[in-house]
Amino acid sequence: MSSFLLRGVRPLGGDPVDLLLSDGRIADVGVVGSVAGAHTVDADGLIALPGLVDLHTHLREPGREDAETVETGTQAAALGGFTAVHAMANTSPVADTAGVVEQVWRLGQQYGHADVRPVGAVTVGIAGEQLAELGAMADCPAGVRVFSDDGHCVSDAVLMRRALEYVKAFDGVIAQHAQEPRLTEGAQMNEGEMSAMLGLGGWPAVAEEAIIARDCLLAAHVGSRLHVCHVSTAGSVELIRWAKSKGWDVTAEVTPHHLLLTDDLVSSYDPIYKVNPPLRTAADVEALRAGLADGTIDAVATDHAPHPDEAKDCEWAAAAMGMLGLQTALSVVQQVMVDTGLMSWADVADRMSTRPARIGRVDGHGRGLEVGAPANVTLVDPSTTWTVDPHALASKSSNTPYRRMTLPGSVYATFLRGNATVLDGKLA
Amino acid sequence: MKRHLLSAADLSRDEALLILDTAEELARLADRPIKKLPTLRGRTVVNLFYEDSTRTRTSFEAAAKRLSADVINFSAKGSSVSKGESLKDTALTLEAMGTDAVVVRHSASGAPHRLATSGWIRGSVVNAGDGTHEHPTQALLDAFTMRRRLGSFDGRRVTIVGDILHSRVARSNVRLLHTLGAQVTLVAPPTLLPVGVQTWPCAVSYDLDAEVAKSDVVMMLRVQHERMNAAFFPSAREYSRRYGLDGRRFAAMPEHAIVMHPGPMNRGMEITAEVADSPRSTIVEQVTNGVSVRMAVLYLLLSGSESAIGSIEGESA
Ligand SMILES: [Zn+2]
Question: For residue A321, which of A67, A83, A262, B45 sits 20 to 30 Å off, Cα-Cα?
Fold first, then answer.
């Protein structure tokens, strides 16, 4: 096992120190001097963060290997500074059995670009009718702790109540895709001025907020953990804030694209901007940023959703929903949260590593950069900029809404248990 | 003129008036024994219809033929929108055939926009109705009809009644009539008005009786039968009582005021037969005017110069 000496790096943006990664752990912090046999990285000006943890990644394998695989998806993750990702369950077959989650978990181990934590489906086939074997998925080697029908809402209140209750037995969490299905029938974009103008079916904020309100009450009633996926409206932030003020165990995530992009972009009718939940208004974006900054929203999650070109190179109504996110997440967060002064790098570490790792119960990730912690570390160069080239990304798909945009900051290196997965901005 | 006609919102006042004036010139053709001009000889116009609409397709076809263009009717009905490849693949086919203009009707809002901006084809795109977005040539023919009956647009009050939420005709009319200087009021049950309508350049009312007496134009929209089962309003009977144009409301309109309908009508639902068939109803002439307006649009998009209009005037002189 190799050792890395990171010279003059700034942990969480603080004062420069040397960081020695050895035997998979952080072996030393401070003025280390030279270490025989260690690969020295001149990290002057780079910021060290605990390896990022994504709560919401679509790796598409099994079933849609034309869009993404565990291999390419985790390569994108490593290049984006992630050391662990949660692989969403809406694959084909659906990850609703121990067999499928174990398969995904093993593929992650095999490629070794990032730890893959499979998410188990809440209901069989994500059909919203019958609970999947949640316990079997929890007990198998993949050790599933996060359960989600993401892509679909567990809209049946009784089923949602039972799921919340049931996973208490193994410290699981239900990650809800909050979308009231009747209120979003035919919905194509955020309901508001823009949808009225464009003649696209409106997706009202209340369809998200009504489910969040209901689920917070249910989680409180049964005393369980609820996690709300990709919060997208100002009202949702208010509801989470209210639930937290009650002391309920409710957490939430926001995507980078909901922190940056607005529904004005849809006027191009370019399906690259078609996503679930939809891009909202500037007022929503502002509320999401504030909610993330004050900790109401616990985590940034990418909702990395690869799609092949033909799923986007068509008319809006026919296009698939979703956008890439792994390789651009940190840059977008730097642009909208750090460079604006809303958050520090320590806050970034908290929202993109510590808290998502805690929510997902991911051992060995999200720890502080202290001696003895597992050497899951990401080095960021905040002073650079880069222009996003969709075809230069590691993902098999190229559906990024940031194409041709210039974003700040780049991932210089990523270490997973002391091994470089990315070095000098390239896969190691 | 721009290269495409995708939305009534894209038209400046001058452009809109140019289309109406050109249509006025071209309408004279209809009175001649040979109703044909050589203007677009050798040009190919494709009617690409993903949605059935015999009346709109026929109108565009007649318009293109009267300008001597070659017309290909490409009925793509049945090709699934859920398999999104179809529009792009069809576009590439049309491009390979050397199409000069594509008249497209599609159930998906924005499909013509996508066709025009995606780089799939080089020709002009004319929106012949897309989803619940726009139907700009319908608005132009409505405006043409209004101008013929009422003269200018300035200060004229136009009331549009019915299913605004799903109506591309309403969207296009609001935009065009505002550009042309008319005052538009939308009347509908609140369930059939889009969220965000407050920002449109028009007034909104739930009360038809309050509006008819001050309207120069009352435009009735078709109510789709499927809306009746989707809780947009309690029953057809209640709808027609509150939002239908019957003899009593018709009698309350000013004497010069006209009644319009883009067709096809549900007689007895949004409009009674006596009103639809009255001489103040323009429903039949809207169809006739549709051909002239579409000729003007194709003509201006494809020949692209005002001078050619002079040649029509020369011929008719
Ligand atoms: Zn989702």
Answer: A83
Q: How far, in Å, from the CA of A150 to the mean position of ligand 1?
A: 4
Q: How far apart are CA B75 and CA B55, in angstroms?
A: 14
- Contact (CB<8Å) A315/B195: no
Query: Low-confidence residues of chain A, pLDDT below 70?
Result: 1
Could you give the C-alpha distances from B25 to A414, B28, B43, B196, in angstroms and in order? 71, 6, 21, 39
> Which among A417, A427, A335 has a CA at the least distance from the CA of A115?
A417
Residue A301 phi/psi, 5-degree rounding, is -130, 140
Contact B106 A315 (CB under 8 A): yes
Residues B125 and B141 in one domain: no
- Taking each helix axis from N to C end, the angle separating A205-222 and A234-245, rounded to the nearest 10 degrees, works out to 10
Same structural domain, B273 and B143: yes
pLDDT in tens, A355-383: 999 999 999 999 989 999 999 999 999 99
**pLDDT the model gives residue B77:** 63
pLDDT tens figures, A198-211? 999 999 999 999 99
Residues B145 and B281 in one domain: yes
* CATH number of the domain encompassing residue B124: 3.40.50.1370
Contacts of A267 in chain B (CB under 8 A): none
What is the reported pLDDT for A1?
Answer: 62
Is B196 close to A195, i.e. CB distance below 8 A?
yes
Q: Do the annotations mark residue B138 as ligand-binding?
A: yes
The boundaries of the domain holding residue B236 are: 136-285
Token output for B253: 């309109």
**Residue B252 lies inside a defined structural domain of this protein:** yes
Size of interface A-B (CB pairs under 8 A): 86
What distance in Å separates residue A252's CA from the closest CA in chain B? Answer: 28
Interchain contact B224–A (C-beta under 8 A): no
Q: State the total domains in chain B.
A: 2
Identify the structural domains of chain A with CATH numbers, from first to last.
51-360 (3.20.20.140)
Note the pLDDT of residue B81: 46
Could you state, in chain order, the average pLDDT of each consecutive group of 10 residues for chain B (317 residues)?
Answer: 92 97 90 86 94 92 96 73 66 90 95 93 96 97 97 96 96 98 97 94 97 97 86 92 96 97 92 96 95 97 59 40
Of A194, A197, A311, the CB nearest to B84: A311
**Cβ within 8 Å, pair B109-A191:** no
Q: Is residue B219 part of a domain?
A: yes
Residue in A263, A203, A212 with CA at minimum distance from that of residue A237: A212
CB contact under 8 A, B84 and A269: no
Taking the centre of ligand 1 as the mean of its atom positions, its distance from the CA of residue B29, in whole angstroms, is: 58
8 A C-beta contact, residue B223 and residue B269: yes
Q: C-alpha distances in angstroms, B85 versus A198, A318, B74, B78, B176?
A: 22, 9, 16, 14, 33
Return the pLDDT at A250: 98
Fill in the DSSP letter of residue A335: I
A317 contact residues in B (CB cutoff 8 A): 81, 107-111, 131
Q: Do residues B104 and B26 both lie within one domain? A: yes
B170 and B221 housed in the same domain: yes
